[in-house]
Amino acid sequence: MKKFLTLVFLYFFFNCFSQNVKQDSIIEKYTRKCAYQFHYLAQGWEDCINEGLKADSAIAIFWHHKALPLWKTRKYELALKSYDKAVKYNRKEYLGRRGFLKCIFLKNYADALKDLDAATKEYGDAIQNDHSYDFYKSLCYLQLNDFDKALKLMQSEIDKIKKQSGVDWVSPLCYFYTGIIYYEKRDYKSAVEELDKALKLYPNFSDAEYYKALSLYKINNDFKTYLESARLAKKDYDKGLTFKEGDSPYEKYPYEVNWYMINLDD
């Protein structure tokens, strides 16, 4: 019986090993030797990935790569359809990533929370684009107007970074969004304190400058000072001192200032 079980084990082991080797060879052929020779928005990239899927449609990274140009060109329905396949074939690798994409690209915050919560429960915390799941969960709750949960999660993010890496590693965006949450809770004094922390790490961060000006106006009711500060923030924005996240050239982040909607006239 032991000999039989050993033979069964060896059969499945070598079968899986052979399958992995075969898939690795297919991935190599259609990514590094093909798709990666092109920009991901080029038609050559798409052609290589489609050929890879013809070779083996159960390889998750092909679906991930098929979705990439679709996210960047805002073809969200098609992007999600492909990314669902990536999650199907490699849930551990792509579930949390899908939550991030739903948060920042799709702006479907309830669904993003489902993915991020499931990924945390099944596989533990992880990083997406320099921030942990708690950061994106906080943004989701912020956008759903659940400010208490948003604050708790963003504070958890800050505390976690301080403990793991030190205070110098906290992103200015963490303080920025903490300030935004306090602003929405109408605690304008705390909002200014948090926005000042963001500005200490990222001087002349135009979005933080604007919300600081807005918070101070709520405190002091001094429109002239608000207008002067908002104009200075706009000048810093014009210098490019705004969001610098990896995906911010493609997508607006929550509470990124839309200057076209702000009247800076007297």
List the SSEs and their pairings.
Elements: H1 2-30, H2 43-55, H3 60-72, H4 76-89, H5 91-106, H6 109-123, E1 127-128, E2 131-132, H7 133-143, H8 147-164, H9 172-184, H10 188-201, H11 206-220, H12 223-238
Antiparallel strand pairs: 1-2
Helix pairs in contact: 1-2, 2-3, 3-4, 4-5, 5-6, 5-7, 6-7, 7-8, 8-9, 9-10, 9-11, 10-11, 11-12
Describe this structure as you would to a colleague.
TPR repeats lie at residues 172-205. It holds the Pfam family TPR_2. With 266 residues, the chain is mainly alpha-helical. The protein folds into three domains: 25-89, Serine Threonine Protein Phosphatase 5, Tetratricopeptide repeat; 94-170; 191-266, no CATH class. The chain has helices spanning 2-30, 43-55, 60-72, 76-89, 91-106, 109-123, 133-143, 147-164, 172-184, 188-201, 206-220, 223-238, and strands at 127-128, 131-132. It has a two-stranded antiparallel sheet with strand order 1-2. A hairpin with a 2-residue loop joins strand 1 (127-128) and strand 2 (131-132). Helix 5 (91-106) runs parallel beside helix 7 (133-143), helix 7 (133-143) runs antiparallel to helix 8 and helix 8 (147-164) packs antiparallel against helix 9 (172-184). The longest helix is centred in the first third of the chain and has 29 residues, at 2-30. It is elongated. It starts with a helix and ends in a 28-residue tail after the last helix.
